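Re: beginner question about structure tokens

> Can someone show what the tokenized structure looks like for a real chain? I only ever see the sequence side.

Sure, here's an example I had lying around. Input first:
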Amino acid sequence: ASYGHMQIIANPLTDAIAVQFPELFPAAEMMDEAATSTSTADSEAASMAEESAAEMPANTLELTIDTFIFSPQRVEVPVGATVTWTNTDAIDHTVTSGAPDAETGVFDSGFFNQGESFSFTFTEAGEYAYFCKRHPNMRGMVVVVEQ
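And the corresponding structure tokens:
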């Protein structure tokens, strides 16, 4: 992986440093490298999400946290759906509603480690932004629609 002027090997520690010090590691390049290293470009993630959704019950959706990215980053679910985030990263994360400077209090996983999951059932239509408290550049969106 390459972060600007530095040639390095992509690994969780390097990515953690890049997330904590974005001024040293331009975010766009970091995200490009993360997407390349995990072979999940946005279009591939969307395609995989559609395939996963087709295989799962309509009221359940599984997301992953990997390489400091919520995947997929934006999903649409019906009212009453349960979304489960599973942390596959080697470092702990949170799934917290709102934004780093404006938490909404709708849901907060607390910190959870690799292999652990957090689920939330969305009972009202709307757009629910979320982020990781430890890594505020990690963000996602759940759009809940009436059926």
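Each token stands for a local structural state, so reading them left to right follows the chain. Helices lie at 12-20, 27-38, 42-55.
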